[in-house]
Amino acid sequence: MVGLATVFGAGGGTSSYKEIEETDVILLWGSNAREAHPIFFHHLMKGLDNGARMYAVDPRRTSSSKFADAWLGLSVGTDIAMANAVAREIIHNGWVNQAFIDHSTTGYEAFAESVESYTLEVAEQITGVPGSAIAEMAKAYATAEKAQILWTLGITEHHNAVDNVLSLCNLALLTGHIGTWGSGLVPLRGQNNVQGGGDMGSLPNKLPGFQNVTDPEARAKFEAVYGVPIPPENGIHLTLMFEAMERSEIKAAYVIGENPADSEADVQHARKLLSGLDTLVVQDIFMTRTAELADVVLPASVGWAESEGTVTSSERRVQRVRAAVTPPGEARHDQDIIGELARRMGYDWGQPTSEDLWEELRALSPLHGGMTYARLEDEGGLQWPCPDLDHPGSPFLHGWLWEDDLGGRAGAPFSVVEHEGPKEQLTEAFPLRLTTGRSLDSYNTGVQSGGYDNPIRYGDALDMNPVDAAALELADGETVKVSSPRGSVEMPIRVQPDIPEGLTFTTFHFPELVDINVLTNDAWDKRSGTSEFKAASIRVEKLPSSDHTPQLQDS
Amino acid sequence: MADLHLTADRATTAESVAVDAALAAIGVDSALVMEDERLVRGGTHRRHARRHALLPALHALQTESGWISPGGLNYVAEVLQVPPAEAYGVASFYEMFRVDEAPGHDDDVVHVCVDAPCLEFAEAKIASLEAEGKHVHRSPCLGQCDRANANDGPALFIQGRQKANSVPADAPSLAGELWPLPQKHEPGLKLLKRVGRVDPTSLDSYVAMDGYKALARAFELGAEQVIEEVATSGLMGRGGAAFPTGIKWRGVAGADGEQKHIVANADESEPGTFKDRTIMENDPFALIEAMTIAGFAVGATKGWIYIRGEYPLATARLESAIEQARAAGFLGTAIAGAKSISFDLEVRRGAGAYICGEETALFNSLEGFRGEPRQKPPFPTTHGLFQQPTAINNPETLLNVLDIVTDGGAAYAASGTEGSNGQKLFCLSGHVTAPGTYEVEFGPTLREMIDVAGGVTGGELKAVLLGGAAGSFVGPDLFDMPLTMEATRAAGASLGSGVIMAFNEHTDFEAVCIRIAEFFKNESCGQCVPCRVGAVRQHELLIRSKGKVMNGELQLLEDMDRVMKDASICGLGHTASTAVRSAISLGLIGAN
Amino acid sequence: MTAVESTTAKSANGMTETLVTIQVDGRPVSIPEGGTILDACSKAGVSTPTLCYAENLTPVNVCRVCVVEVENSRTLVPSCSRVAEEGMVVQTDSERVRHSRKMVIEFLDTSVDLSQTTAPTSNEAGGRNLADWAAEYGADSSRYGPAPQTMDEEVKIQDNLYIRDYDKCVLCYKCVEACGDDAQHTFAIAVSGRGFGARISTEFDVSLPDSACVYCGNCVAVCPTNALQFKTEFDLREANNWREEEQSVTRTVCSYCGVGCNLELHVQDDTIVKVTSPNDHSVTSGHLCIKGRFGWQYVQPTIQRKPS
Ligand SMILES: Cc1cc2nc3c(=O)[nH]c(=O)nc-3n(C[C@H](O)[C@H](O)[C@H](O)COP(=O)(O)O)c2cc1C
Ligand code: SF4
Ligand code: SF4
Ligand code: SF4
Ligand code: FES
User: Does C142 reach chain B within 8 Å, measured CB to CB?
Assistant: First the structure.
């Protein structure tokens, strides 16, 4: 969200799902939406059936990539080199939308200069993808009437996540593929309310509706309604919190619906820090590993089936969630728990309904001003911005870039970003790259999806190219020792021709089986606070023969 | 559909080699190409563009292994990126493909025709073949009704294992004459003028007998004028539906679309029909020339001949003729010296499914899908093969175009009768002295046609099945009806594909009718409820009532006939009970 | 507030709609160009039976229960797929129409177990179901002899998520479409065989877990006959404890990713018994993935929320 907000002022996906059904060219960049966002992928496949061409940029030949006209298997962490080379191709071939650049953007000259060194040859050398294919993708994207770029964690789970996103934004600015129906930049959200969390101000620097904490006017508006002063400084994000714990500046934590003891990169370190806190309060629907470390556990009801409220999707659609079943035991609605805590701290908020809270939000956040519960119900959700009751909601963002009068705004800035590569270089001791992702049937750290059995779950394994496996004399299904500079685990391998040589892959769904975040790198992006899950370096070793226990079925 | 999932079964080397060769023969490469370890090409477009190769690939597997093995199917699925469940759905649709490793799969399969008129000889032949240890398959009409007689028995077709398919009469020499060509020496023929006289394997021989004169004339006339001549001629389709060809062509010529197609519907599976085979085996260049003219006229650069899988000789002769025509510049780009005109042809084999003669089912089959008819509209003229504008015609229809172009549409319109212009081919079979394909100028009566074929054998003529299984029985009251579109229509019958199947007084009509009902039951594609279930219920009813269809059963039969006629998707369902009901009203079966 | 402004979709509001007017049972009805006769019937309030039609799938027009009479058309036409043309004159209740609809119902009833085809099968919400239509047209399935051929299939129970009982299958092609081009693009199932022998099948009828199936359950959601059934429903029915009339249906949003798929939670005895999605919602069009469809089991009170 930070990258998009930097360029366009709003951290939301620019387009509606429907638009991809009508687009002409799709760049699917670092996203295995087929498995991670299956229903979005339905819209995408409709687009393909309607004639769209798709290029998939991903280190792995994912199931999504298999739908692409061409799969470009770049080396992990070389996205910026690829994007900059695409930009250079577009500029050198005169495929830029000069009128758009002149009118609606800033910083083009410096940007054009900065990508000059990213020739196809250089890009081929860095990314491993034939330069001709990069050129072809550049042409397809730039010369299309409508084109979209989509990405997920493949772009954002890197230490330079924001730069990755900026480099893709640059391509849209060069070509003007933004702010019109069918074109845009679409980050796909991993969880049902990542977008909604941001909308509601759960970002260290934002108040609800993406209003800045540092803006006194905004604060004053909220203070008037909340009846308390709001600290004028930005807060800190999760990764900085851990650093603050390390420095003992943070001594207590209240964790709501997160499982950092499993999900943080370099989890051993994270667990140590959480255990070292004076007070840890965890509010969750599960007895997660984080909850096990807690001093107080507050059992919560399930958000989407046992509580009332709203969530916001990747297309900025605000929708209602509703209670359908009674929460078990002592579990309570998050809202009640927080209210109760407040009461004990001396603030009696009464018993507001979720609609009461929403009404307050509506009054404070212009983006949501027109979204009453009744409208959300009747209209199948609404897409922000929706400032007033007559507003139909906004299928896509940034149409202002195409207006004759930019309303005093300077335009969207190009960003100069340089290729750095993964923080953790491959070494002789750790010669293989490890990257992580999702599989279709499972979710995040697996606490929820572990609850149902299904025939397509293949269990955790390390995917390896046949050549790499052969070099280590490993058989499909053999259990191996996997080590990174941070630790090691044992897990079976799966020999997979879809993964290029030198790369390995695993999902992060089964921490109880395989503690994979023991291996991942916690180098993180200064601006977004995202850690580098996507690029650790590892070593794979054969275990003594007694441990050869092939466990996996051929999938 | 590109993240396909395949079971662990793998093809044998022989299977993959066979499939590769079949794909190479039609110029299709894999839908998925690894260009580099970091660059793989695929995608929806490549996949769609290759789907039509599915049927040829399945043929290759069947010939190689004697069945469509799971490993073989997986191989095809992978190279063409067709989901295996769909490929299986296609394979299991056709009579000529086996999807189980049943006994006998590793041997040639002898298809024995069990439709009238072969019906009366079929069981004896099957018994003797089985006694010889042959692997026998009961087949619907094989399009060789002119061969069926008490001496030679029923028609046969041999599906080869690891060798080409054949029919027992296939002569070693391609020039050899296989079947009776009763009019071989008759003067004044137009459609069959070269049949039996020209060497069907030689382009030179064709050219020497006025071949390619019509194409030259068409180029002189220009595309629009060719369509005008065809419209003026009043030519109506000979495939069964009798639709005016000129209107069809005009529709295609005027339709929007960069790529247009000409398709020759050579599926010829209507029981009792074998005229198209006569043409294709004996004068293949004539069909090719006519299709070239059609392509020129409507602006189609691509032509397809969809030929039934049980016509090995006609297939071979067409393929050889196409090759020669291409080599001589009559096909390809700048054909016959006309720089701006391109036209090329491909032959595609069906795999045993009567329904694939229905034009839209044919498109689906050729495109690599199940041969299920499409609901019309939209019509083929705008949404035909690959959803592109398509003129689909019967080979006989196309053949007429040669004379229409050379002599003019007006001359053609002057021949024949008021409502039926020009020449017509009739397929005479059953209890006649000289079965075969006969050409006449429209006009003769049914009785006269039977006399042309030497008259009835084995007793008095009791009834004639006119138009095939989809047609109807006619009795003595109509024997003097002229065989024209208008007269048959007035009598509530139809010429259909030109079938005249004669039955003498000793015929077991109950058996014939039950077999007709069984034919429809087996050949229904199964897509729509009225036909899928109706055809079964009709067959059950005939068996249940043992030929005595009376009272309530008669009402039920009529009720079923109405829903099939009114609510089925295609002509198969519409006509599935016509013959049976005509047999009842003539008193051939039942007592009404 | 940040610098964002809204823009409405060109295609969403840019086009002006052209209307066509047709006669339905003597009354003029206007609908947007491109709409079907069925759309016109719905607009005119003319109740029409459907079986293979669904608003979230491309019409395949195979069941033929929706046929109507169109002036100057030789045969009846399927209202679900036939595009309305200006000036068309349509009869929906003529003797011919009633006869064909009745026969289609008789044909199905004699070949397929329709005992669970109880959901409304018509163009209006909460409309008549197949039994109502059978009564309306006076269908009589007893006149087809003592033992008309039937589908004759065993129930396939191959996993814990859903079952397939092709004895109930009317071959409406809906599951194939949902698994294929119309939604899921997995193509795990297709129609195989021909004629009365046609069946919905995986390749070589391999078991579902061995097939390409990814258990999205989209086929189950569109099946009108309960030939495809969630295992939860199947088990409750087997135990004689499926009480649909008592179930509540609550709409909410799936929590497994950020796409925002709408879920309908069907609850009986404070327990989720199945999950569907509304056909008319722009995000899902009724389709879900395995997580949304089956991943709810952890909220069940009967299932202990295990520590991870
Ligand atoms: C079940 C069925 C089978 C058919 N079989 C054939 C066939 O084998 N050959 C043919 O030319 N037409 C056949 N037709 C008719 C075609 O659908 C189509 O009308 C014809 O090919 C058009 O060509 P024409 O206008 O030259 O007659 C069949 C129709 C049906 C309903
Ligand atoms: S009428 Fe028969 S053959 Fe034609 S589509 Fe229907 S089921 Fe298939
Ligand atoms: S569950 Fe989904 S993938 Fe499986 S057969 Fe049904 S629609 Fe296809
Ligand atoms: S299983 Fe259900 S959805 Fe599929 S064809 Fe049969 S009845 Fe229709
Ligand atoms: S609903 Fe129209 S044909 Fe089935």
Answer: no
Q: How many CB atoms lie within 10 A of CB B106?
A: 13
pLDDT confidence of C306, banded at 50, 70, 90? very low
How far apart are alpha carbons C133 and C143 in whole angstroms?
Answer: 18
Q: Does the interface predicted TM-score (ipTM) exceed 0.85?
A: yes
| Inter-chain touch C145–B525, beta carbons under 8 Å | no
CATH match of C35-143 with 3.10.20.740? yes
Which residues 6+ apart lie within 8 Å of B587 measured at CB? none
Cα–Cα distances in angstroms (integers) from residue A509 to residues A255, A479, C215, C259, in the given order: 20, 18, 18, 19
From chain C residues 54-73, the ones with a CB under 8 A of any chain B CB are 61-65, 67
pLDDT at A51 over 90: yes
pTM for this one?
0.94
The structural architecture, per CATH, of the domain A194-383 is 3-Layer(aba) Sandwich (3.40)
Which residue intervals of chain C bear CATH 3.10.20.740?
Answer: 35-143
Residues 536-565 of B with CB under 8 A from A: none
Query: From the CA of C15, how far away is ligand 5's center (Å)?
Result: 30
Question: How much distance in Å is there from the Cα of C79 to the middle of ligand 5?
Answer: 7
Could you say which of C9, C208, C254 has the minimum Cβ distance to residue A192? C254
User: Is C110 in contact with C148 (CB distance < 8 Å)?
Assistant: yes
Tens of pLDDT, residue by residue over C110-157, are: 999 999 998 888 888 788 999 999 999 999 999 999 999 999 999 999
- Domains for chain B: give ranges and CATH numbers: 2-91 (no CATH), 109-159 (no CATH), 203-413 (3.40.50.11540), 423-504 (3.10.20.600), 509-585 (1.20.1440.230)
List where CATH 2.40.40.20 sits in chain A.
432-542
CA distances (Å), origin C13, targets A272, A392, C7, C16, C17? 56, 11, 11, 8, 10
Query: A45: distance to nearest CA of chain B, Å?
Result: 9
Best of C36, C37, C64, C88 to disrupt the B interface by mutation (most B CBs within 10 Å)? C64
Query: Å from A123 to nearest chain B CA?
Result: 13
Q: Report, at the CATH architecture level, how domain C155-299 is classified.
A: 2-Layer Sandwich (3.30)
Considering every ligand atom shown, identify the ligand nearest to the alpha carbon of residue C223 and give its number: 4
Residue linked to tokens 């005479």: B428
- Choose the residue to mutate in C173, C179, C189, C234 for probing ligand 4, maximizing ligand atoms within 8 Å of C-beta: C173
- C-alpha to C-alpha distances, B376 to A442, B360, B570, C78, C82, nearest whole angstrom: 45, 9, 9, 10, 9
What radius of gyration, in Å, describes the C-alpha atoms of chain C?
Answer: 21
* Residue ranges of chain A assigned to CATH 3.40.228.10: 2-187
Class of the CATH domain delimited by A432-542: mainly beta
CA of B517 to the centre of ligand 2 (A): 14
What three-state secondary structure class fits B386? helix
Q: Which residues of A touch B44 (CB under 8 A)?
A: 48-49, 67, 69
What are B279-322's pLDDT values in tens digits? 999 999 999 999 999 999 999 999 999 999 999 999 999 999 99
**Statement: A2-187 belongs to CATH 3.40.50.720:** no
The residue with tokens 């697996």 is A446
How many whole angstroms from A284 Cα to the centroid of ligand 4? Answer: 41
